[in-house]
Amino acid sequence: MGNLTPLAQFGSLAPATPGVLTRKQKAAIIVRVLLNSGTDLQYRDFPEELQEELTFLLGTMRHIDRDTLGQVVDEFVEELDSLGLTFPKGLAGALSILDGKISPHTAARLRKEAGVRQTGNPWERLGNLDVAKLLPIAENESIEIAAVMLSKLDTDKAAKLLSMLPGPRARRITYAVSLTSGITPDSLDRIGLSLAAQLDSQPESAFDKGPVERVGAILNFSTASTRDDVLEGLDETDAAFAEQVRKAIFTFTNIPARIAPRDVPKIVRGIDQAMLVTALAAATDPESAKAAEFVLANMSARLADSLREEMSDRGKVKAKDAEEAMNEVVAEIRKLEASGELLLLSGDDESEDE
Question: CATH number, domain at 285?
């Protein structure tokens, strides 16, 4: 029972002639028939007031004879047959069916202008957010509210969020989780709606990624001298930000620490062989030589031998050509990462071929 609009409309009209079943009573009968037949009826998708009325009617109505049941079902089927198309009621419904079809910025602006909040289960929405967006709530809300939110998140996300908090606050929130068992469903719903409303009121960012990721991506493809100069300047103005940017940067020398050996053949296949030979031949300093050897050691022996011969014939590589070739290797890795075909290691993990 995917689209519940016809059933909601069937139960939301004015009563029929006095002395006979009302439209809402008929809707209650249809609901009962569907539930009896094992239909997965998404009752929660009805408007709340209709859910309440139908539940009340289901609890108060008694025996319905077979003829009356047949007439109600026939009437409902007839209305379904005559229904050509339904539209969402109001801007909230329109935004709901257009979710993902219009830009987030446009949707946020329309919601703000019309005073429309997001619909749906607030805890489901919160649970789908990145930990980075939940962190300010855990940091700034009361300990009790943070404990409730932690309890509603899946275990992995809750653990990651907890690890990002200062030790004393993390301990207080963890203890407060033990005190949440007395919270009523109504209170839980109100807390979820309040937190979701906070998120709705936040301005939409013009950028898809944070400043650390943006600066890191730019420096990834800058020359080594420019990258070192920028990071040195950042160290002087904001050492913490500089450290985060360093972690976001991925260069040729990071390959051994952040690429799993099993992913090397996949990377090599996507790079022009002449460009790959140039990058490997240019790796003469200790760090880049370690990266080149890692790449060669994790491909087929036949291909590695062929590449070593070409590297020997290639001779000395100009600095400009070296930068271009190494950036080509990094670009291929980033492309595979973005498509989900490759997962970069944290840098602290051991590169194990599972």
Answer: 1.10.220.30
